[in-house]
Amino acid sequence: MKTYLDYAATTPLDPDVLSAMLPYFSDIFGNPSSFHSYGQEARKALVNARSTIARSIGANPDEVVFTSGGTESNNLAIKGTAYRNRKKGNHIITSTIEHHAVLKPCRFLEQEGWKITRLPVDSTGLIDPEEIRKAITPKTVLISVMHGNNEIGTIEPVAEIGRIAREHGVYFHTDAVQTYGHLPIDVNEMYMDMLSASAHKLYGPKGVGFLYVKKGTRIAPFMHGGEQEEGLRGSTHNLPGIVGLAKAAEIAGRTMKQECERLKLLRDRLIRGIEEKIPRVTLNGHPTKRLPNNVNIAFTAVEGESMMLELDMEGIVCSTGSACSSLSLEPSHVLTALGLSHELAHCSLRFSLGSRTRAEDIEKVLEVLPRIVRRLRELSPLHEAQ
Predict the structure, then answer these.
(1) For 144-164, how does the pLDDT look when each residue is reduced to its tens digit (9 = 90+)?
(2) How far apart are CA 56 and CA 202, in angstroms?
(3) Phi, psi torsion values for 318, nearest 5 degrees
(4) Which residues contact 366 (CB under 8 A, 6 or more apart)?
């Protein structure tokens, strides 16, 4: 039995979520946009799912827009805000450690003439809200800062950022893909105008997510077709996926507090054990303001991919960073933004814990990893040079 510690990349489908979805693949197969009885039965499930999602973040049901996942939600928020508000201004503020699903839409808009300010973070990955305040200009239409970082786990001060945005009449969007269903979120208390989430990060199905859009927020669709989702996202609804997302959100709401505390204990045991057993390691990200399931550590003089492959052969699955960047030979933009050298950024591993993680899994890593690091360092020319 392998030990899976890559929950930040994706999570296994909860059996109760699968059970909730199954009828909508066969028995209740109508199109929610159809007016006949089959369609209306399906529409009832859609309405219920939307209400469940809305309650989970303190929103109204008509503020929830279903999408295909976090990437689409981020693109809709960023491009949609830009295209609808271009008469007001052409400036967007974000950070240097955002997911590529935020950075690349911003880069696309930059090529179209938009001004993008990418604010730096400190050595723990935190952005200074006052730097955001200073960066706002009369042309700023959007601030997009993620809630919790997918690589290093640092939790950003989004409520403070949202308050600053609100004071200046600027829309605030947060990528909450790593935090929705894992940390409490209230879009009103956090001054959020838009929030992106994805089902497969909280034991739901892949290919479905949502974008919260506060009532009155002016955004334009970037995918045109039917009038589904208030005209913001044309396409026949992925009803099984949406039902699964809502069920996953419902389960998360019941278990979040207890699960968060459980994972924190396991997380801290893993960090402490690695620091005690392996010399010359550095914890990446904030020591306390971090996701309850995230451990990202740099191991001096040993290549991250080699460690990951060795661990996989020992039955332990982890990653070197974001799954979306796993095919790139470039060092993590998140780690280099913290000030890590390219060499040290390539020497990092990310362990992300989840529902099936138990104490014995952590002890297995602490038994196997020191031996792997020691052997790889003996073979490493970087180790020889130090």
Answers:
(1) 999 999 999 999 999 999 999
(2) 13
(3) -145, -160
(4) 270, 273, 274, 277
Q: What is the mean pLDDT of residues 262-282?
A: 98
pLDDT at 384: 53
Q: Tell me: the pLDDT tens digits for 370-383?
A: 999 999 999 876 65
User: CA geometry: angle at 100 spanning 174 and 202, to 5°?
Assistant: 60
Q: Is 324 a catalytic residue?
A: yes
CATH code of the region 3-9+256-384: 3.90.1150.10
Positive/negative CA dihedral, 66, 69, 73, 75 = negative
Q: Which amino acid is at 136?
A: I
High-pLDDT (> 90) share of the chain, %: 91
Which residue's structure tokens are 């927020």? Answer: 217
Nearest-angstrom CA–CA distance, 42 and 309: 45
> 15-251 belongs to which CATH class?
alpha beta
- Sequence ranges of the domains in the chain: 3-9+256-384, 15-251
Both tokens of 65, joined, read 């827009």
Catalytic: which of 106, 260, 318, 324?
Answer: 324
Give the model confidence (pLDDT) of 312-335 as tens digits: 999 999 999 644 544 557 889 999
Whether the model clears a pTM of 0.85, i.e. scores above it, the answer is yes
Residue at 39: amino acid letter: G
Kindly tell me if the per-residue pLDDT of 202 is higher than 80: yes
Crossing angle (nearest 10°) for helices 239-277 and 359-379: 60
